[in-house]
C-alpha cells in the first residue's frame, strides 16, 4: 500500500471552517486519497478532521490562536513531518517553499504543489531544489520559467456540495478576501452601474483598504457585507447570485470561488488574467472582460447563459475525483523515476 504524508499549512484548520484555500486543497486531496485506499498521514493542526491518520504538534491554526507564534508553529510543524520521513513512500508538500529546505536531509521523495508565488524572491528556493524535488502547477498560467513540472493539475472541489438554486438572480456577488488585488471596490462599482444589489463575502485581509474604500459604501441594502462564509452556507450564497464578480488585478493562479460558483450554475464575470481563461469558457460559463465597463455589459448578458450547462461543465472539469486521479498518476510517475 502506498504511504503518503500530506503536509498541510497550519494557518487554519483542515478542512477550514471558513477561509483557507490551501487547507481546503489538503483536505480534499487527503480524503480522496483515503477513498482510493492510500495510507495517508495528514500533518495539520491538532483540531483538523480527516479519515486518514492525523499527525500534529500544533493544537490550532495560528490564525485561530492569538497566543501562537506563526514562525515557531511552522518550524515545529515542518520538522515533525520530515523527522518521520522514513515512514513514507512520498511526502506531498502543500506548504509553500520552506519545506523544500528540509528535502535534502531525507531520502523520501518530496512533491510540492505550488500554490502560486507570493513574491518573485521565493523563486530562488524553488530553483535551488528544482533538480532534486518534483513540482506540480495549479494552472498553466502559473508555471515559472526555469522550473520543471511533472504536471499541471487544476484544483478539484466536492461538486456534490454545490447545487443549482431554485430562484437565482436576486443579487450580484463578490466572494473572496477583501483586498485591492481581488477587486472588491470594482465589484461595488459594477453593481452600482447595473443598479443591482451586491453581497460582499470574505475575510478582511487589508484593513485599511476595507475601512477607507469598502466600508463607507456598505449600507446593508445595495451593498451588504456578510463576512466569511463557511461550507454549509456557500452553495446557497453562490447559487442565488445572478453572477459572481471576480475582477482581479493580479495574475491569480487559481480561484476556488470561480469553480464553486460554476458548480452552482452561476456565471462568473472575471478579468481576463492569470488562470481565468483556463477556468472559464467565455460566453458559456461566464465572461472574460478587460475592465469595469466590460463587466457591466457582461452582467446583462449573463442572464442568457444556461445555468444547468454551467454546472455540468464544472462537474466534469473540476470534480475532486479527477484531481485525485491526476495526483495518484503523478505519485506513480515520481516513484518510478526514483526507483
Structure description:
This protein has 339 residues and is α/β, with parallel strands linked by helices. The chain has two domains: 3-156 and 319-338, Glycogen Phosphorylase B (Rossmann fold), CATH 3.40.50.2000; 159-317, Glycogen Phosphorylase B (Rossmann fold), CATH 3.40.50. It has eleven helices and 13 strands. The strands form two sheets. Strands 3-2-1-4-5-6-7 form a seven-stranded parallel sheet, with helices on both faces. The chain has a six-stranded parallel sheet with strand order 10-9-8-11-12-13, sandwiched between helices. Helix 5 links the parallel strand 9 and strand 10 (223-227). Helix 1 (21-35) crosses helix 11 (320-338) and helix 7 (256-263) crosses helix 10. The longest helix is centred in the last third of the chain and has 19 residues, at 320-338. The protein is globular and about 60 Å long. The two termini are 16 Å apart. The mean pLDDT is 96.
